[in-house]
Design brief:
By secondary structure, the protein is mainly alpha-helical. The chain has helices at about 5-10, 15-35, 40-55, 65-85, 100-120, 120-130, 140-145, 150-170. It is globular, with a radius of gyration of 18 Å.
Amino acid sequence: MNEQIIQKIISGDKQAFRVIVDTYKQPLVSYLTYQTKDEELAKDIAQETFIKCYENLVKFKGEHFKAWLFRIAINQLMDFKRKHKEDATPLEETPSLHTPELLMIEREQTKLLHQWLETLEDKTRQIFVLKYASNCSYEEIAETLHIPLTEVRNRLYRTKKRLRESKLKGDMKSALLID
């Protein structure tokens, strides 16, 4: 994140914080939606994340703002799960402009992907979702999760390989392949 924007926010320019929200809202909500399976809940947690970010911006000292922001989101998500013991149920997905057949296929693929993601170890699932749902770089993922960069690379490589193998065995629908 641009140091000038951060300095403007710290100096009291509340409109400058809009740049942060506009830049990171979509990837943050995508990540949290994968984690919660509930878009409205994800939006609420993202909102809390931005509030925490704003309140603690003076403490930001790292080079990777996105990683710092996602660490706040992960902490907010963990707090929510502790408070609610993971009893939240997903809401229906928002309809898109696709035909009913395409919507049904998309829902089935999303359901299959979520089921497949649930088979992964928690840390591996977080890495996968940060990379593909939130488009984080390997470096941002490593910093966010406080793990070595080589571990991020290795886990993503093994996970993509496992996904391809699942597809080849017929365990997954062909349209689900991530290259």
